[in-house]
Amino acid sequence: MQYRLRSVAIAAVLVLSSGANAQPSQLSDAQVREQLVQESIAAYQATGHPCACPDDLARNGFCCGGRSAYSRPGGATPLCYPNDVSDEIVRQWRRTHNR
Questions:
Q1: 3-state DSSP call for residue 61?
Q2: How far apart are CA 97 and CA 14, in angstroms?
Q3: How many CB atoms within 10 Å of residue 88?
Q4: pTM exceeding 0.70
Q5: Assign residue 79 a region: left if phi > 0, alpha if psi is -120 to 50, beta otherwise?
């Protein structure tokens, strides 16, 4: 179940990232990972929830920490760190954007 939710989140990020400014072939893997993380966090926060990742700030100004979606099992699985973006996700992104 967790894998399926992550797959759905990744697919959403791949679709959302179709408006990238730089040419996909010009971006390094690290830059692609960073872009996917930023877009994943933005997509989660667009739902009205501020705590996508542990380092985000809640509405009360405190760090989200263990209250973040990233830290809670069974819910949304935003990509919060470059290590969350596998080589396969980068390859999928490049296939999607090298048209």
A1: coil
A2: 9
A3: 9
A4: yes
A5: beta
DSSP 8-class letter at 99:
-
d(CA 78, CA 73): 12
Structure tokens at 61: 């100004």
pLDDT tens, 58-91? 999 999 999 999 999 988 999 999 999 999 999 9
Using the structure block, give the residue that is written with the tokens 């999607």: 96
Question: Tokens 């949304």 identify what position?
Answer: 76
User: For residue 90, how many C-alpha atoms fall within 13 Å in the half-sphere facing its CB?
Assistant: 16
Place of tokens 């819910």: 75
Cα–Cα distances (Å) from 85 to 35, 53, 59, 68, 88, in that order, read 10, 14, 27, 18, 8
| Unique residue bearing structure tokens 């679709």 | 15
CA atoms of 75 and 69, how far apart (whole Å): 7
Burial class (CB in 10 A: 0-12, 13-18, 19+), 57: exposed
